[in-house]
Amino acid sequence: MDNLTKRNPPDRSKINISEDFEVKYWLKALGVSRNELQRAVDKVGNSAAAVRKELGI
């Protein structure tokens, strides 16, 4: 679970599929559906760069 007392910006190099607010951010940022995002993360891991490459973005 995220520590809400931390003031550091989120790590945008990784996609944390178990945190709803992060999923919402990535759905909007990548312009994909939740299923597309989940399939890409399942296939290539949680690296944002790898997911973007898998999605052709």
N-C termini distance = 29 Å
What value does the Rg take, in angstroms?
11 Å
What is the helix content? 40-55%
The average pLDDT value, as a whole number, equals: 89
Count, helices: 3
* Largest sheet features: none
Count of β-strands = 0
Query: What fraction of residues sit in β-strands?
Result: under 5%
Spans of at least 5 consecutive residues with low confidence: none
Report on this structure:
By secondary structure, the chain is mainly alpha-helical. It has a domain at 20-55. Helix content is 53%, strand content 0%. It has helices at 20-30, 34-44, 48-55. The radius of gyration is 11 Å and the shape is globular.
Short structural summary:
The chain has 57 residues and is mainly α. Helices cover 53% and strands 0% of the residues.
Give short descriptive properties of this protein.
single chain, 0% strand, 57 residues, mainly alpha
Write the layout of secondary structure elements.
Elements: H1 20-30, H2 34-44, H3 48-55
Helix pairs in contact: 2-3
